[in-house]
Design goal:
Blueprint (H helix, E strand, L loop, with lengths): L4 H5 L4 H6 L6 E8 L5 E9 L4 E2 L4 E3 L5 E4 L2 E2 L4 E4 L4 E4 H14 L3 E7 L7 E12 L3 E6 H7 L4 E2 L13 H7 L9 H4 L2
Parallel strand pairs: 1-9, 5-10
Antiparallel strand pairs: 1-2, 3-4, 4-5, 6-12, 7-8, 9-10, 10-11
Length: 189
C-alpha cells in the first residue's frame, strides 16, 4: 500500500470536485480509500463561515475532527523574508499562509485512508476549488501550494527519505527563494 493519501488515490477529478460546490457555503468532503484505491466511505461538512487553520498543517473541521496535511512541516525556529515583510516564527508564517488558502475555496476535497476515518486527527491530502468569476477557476492541492510558496517543506521519514516524494518538484520551486527559503538559516536546516 502506498505511504500517503495522495499516492494511494491517484489523480483528482476536477469536474467532480467542482460539482460539490453549494451556493453560499464552504463545503468540505473527505473521501476514505481502501488499499485498492476504491472509495469506501465519504463524510461531508458545510459551513457558512468556512474552515480555519488549527496549526500550520491542521484544518479544524469541527470540535471532533481535525485534518492534518500529511508529509509537510514548517521550518524550525525563526525566519526572515524581507520581500514578504515577515520576521518571526516559522509556524506563524506557515499558519498564515494556510489561512489564506482556506479563505476562499468553495470546496475543500480531502482524501485519507479508511483507517483514518474515526481518528480525531486524520492524515489527509486536500484540494481546494477556487472560483472567482472572470479571474480564477481551478482545483489546487493545498500541500503543493504551501510547499511551492515556501510556507511548508517536505517532512522526512526516520530513514531520511521524503514522506511526500510527489511534492519534490513543488519544494524545488519554493527553494528558489520563496517564503522560508529566503532565509539562509533555513536553507541550512
Amino acid at each position: 500500500m502506498p505511504s500517503s493519501p495522495a499516492l494511494a488515490t491517484g489523480m483528482v477529478d476536477e469536474a467532480y470536485v467542482k460539482s460539490l460546490a453549494a451556493p453560499g457555503k464552504a463545503v468540505l468532503v473527505i473521501e476514505y480509500y481502501a488499499g485498492n484505491r476504491k472509495v469506501v466511505a465519504r463524510q461531508g461538512f458545510a459551513s457558512t463561515s468556512g474552515f480555519r487553520a488549527a496549526s500550520p498543517t491542521d484544518i479544524r473541521v469541527d470540535d471532533k475532527v481535525r485534518l492534518h496535511l500529511y508529509g509537510v512541516e514548517p521550518c524550525a525556529g525563526e525566519m526572515v523574508n524581507r520581500q514578504e515583510n515577515f520576521a518571526g516564527r516559522c509556524e506563524d508564517f506557515a499558519r498564515t499562509e494556510l489561512e489564506i488558502l482556506l479563505k476562499n475555496p468553495k470546496v475543500l476535497f480531502c482524501r485519507a485512508f479508511v483507517s483514518e476515518q474515526h481518528a480525531p486527527s486524520q492524515d489527509v491530502t486536500c484540494f481546494g476549488y477556487y472560483n472567482i468569476p472572470g479571474a480564477l477557476d481551478t482545483v489546487a492541492n493545498l500541500e503543493e501550494q504551501l510547499v511551492s510558496l515556501g510556507a511548508l517543506r517536505l517532512a522526512k521519514k526516520p530513514g531520511g527519505s521524503l514522506m511526500r516524494p510527489d511534492l519534490a518538484e513543488a519544494e524545488k520551486i519554493g527553494r528558489g527563494g520563496f517564503g522560508m527559503w529566503a532565509d539562509p538559516r533555513v536553507q541550512g536546516q
